[in-house]
Each structure stands twice: as structure tokens, then as C-alpha cells.
């Protein structure tokens, strides 16, 4: 009986936490998604729209991560390689750490203080993450020079489509 209960719990947990590729690959953001607020390292509130406006005219890679996420931490060296290889584009890191304290500790611990970082103080479920079908991290998106979504869904910085998309946008 215990084995059956354990198996049932594993199946339920696995189904609830599995990665699912979005069925619709979006190319632009909704008004609600653009209005989503995050916090910068100093605790100042900023919207997704304001972040995109700061990078208008540049190719932007958005990296969704958290200090508690083993997959994210395993991907960090390759994400840094991607950034080093593409010094002519911008990178923004959006944290899903569970608290402001956790966010700050993660930035320090994983040497992210020299990067552009924001934290979802509203938590995982919010207008932006719901709109982009965020159900797993790490996740990467490539945004073009006009703030449109050029690469909607990638789960690894080693996904060759990330570099292909960047190269096409820079031509």
C-alpha cells in the first residue's frame, strides 16, 4: 500500500512540475504583460515595458532564473559563454527567487551583481509570466530591436536557435 501511495504521489508531482512547450509561439507582448512590475536590485519598481524601452534598438536576451533552481545554476556557465560570445547585444536576467533577500543573496553568491537584474516580487504567477506561458526555468527569450519576440521559447543557453536568431537579427 505504501509503495502504491508513493508511486501515485510521484506521478502527481511529476505531472504538476513537468516542462511543457507552449503550443503558440508568440511574437509580441500583451498590454497586461508589458505592464507587469518587477523590482531592480535597489527595490525600485519597473515595468517590462520600461525594461524593453531601455533596450530598444538592440537585440536583447532575457534569461529567467532563480538561485534555488538547480537547472538554472547548471546553465549559468553556458549562459555566461553566450553573453561573452555576443558582446554587441544586451542581456537581462529576471529572477524568480522567492524573496527579496533570496534575490540579493543569489546575485551575490552566483556573481550576478555586474549584470542587469530584476526580481518578480509578485511571484511566479503574474500577467507577464502567464502571458509567456512560463512553466519552467531556466527559460530564454530573444527580443528584436523593435521589442518584438524573435525567439519565444528556449530552455537552454546552448539551444542553437538562440544564436541563429541573434545572428539573423544582426545582419
Question: Could you please describe the fold and organization of this structure?
Answer:
By secondary structure, the chain is α/β, with parallel strands linked by helices. The chain has a single domain, classed as Glutaredoxin. The protein is 40% helix and 20% strand. It has seven helices and seven strands; from the N terminus they run ααββαβαβαβαββα. It has helices at 2-16, 31-34, 48-54, 70-85, 100-109, 127-131, 160-170; strands at 37-40, 45-47, 60-65, 90-95, 116-119, 139-143, 149-154. The protein has a seven-stranded mixed beta sheet with strand order 2-1-5-4-3-6-7. β1 (37-40) and β2 form a beta hairpin. The longest helix has 16 residues, at 70-85. The termini are far apart. Residues 3-16 have low confidence and may be disordered.
Present the secondary structure layout.
Layout (H helix, E strand, L loop, with lengths): L1 H15 L14 H4 L2 E4 L4 E3 H7 L5 E6 L4 H16 L4 E6 L4 H10 L6 E4 L7 H5 L7 E5 L5 E6 L5 H11 L1
Parallel strand pairs: 3-4, 4-5
Antiparallel strand pairs: 1-2, 1-5, 3-6, 6-7
Pfam families: Thioredoxin_8 (PF13905)
Subcellular location: Cell envelope
InterPro entries: Thioredoxin-like_fold, Thioredoxin-like_sf, Thioredoxin_domain, Thioredoxin_ResA/DsbE_sf
How would you classify the helix and strand content by structural class? alpha/beta
Instruction: Please give the order of strands in the largest beta sheet.
Output: 2-1-5-4-3-6-7
CATH architecture: 3-Layer(aba) Sandwich
Number of helices: 7
Largest sheet: 7 strands, mixed
Provide the β-strand percentage band: 15-25%
Number of strands: 7
Shape: globular
Subcellular location: Cell envelope
Pfam family, one: Thioredoxin_8
Main location: other
Keywords: Cytochrome c-type biogenesis, Disulfide bond, Redox-active center
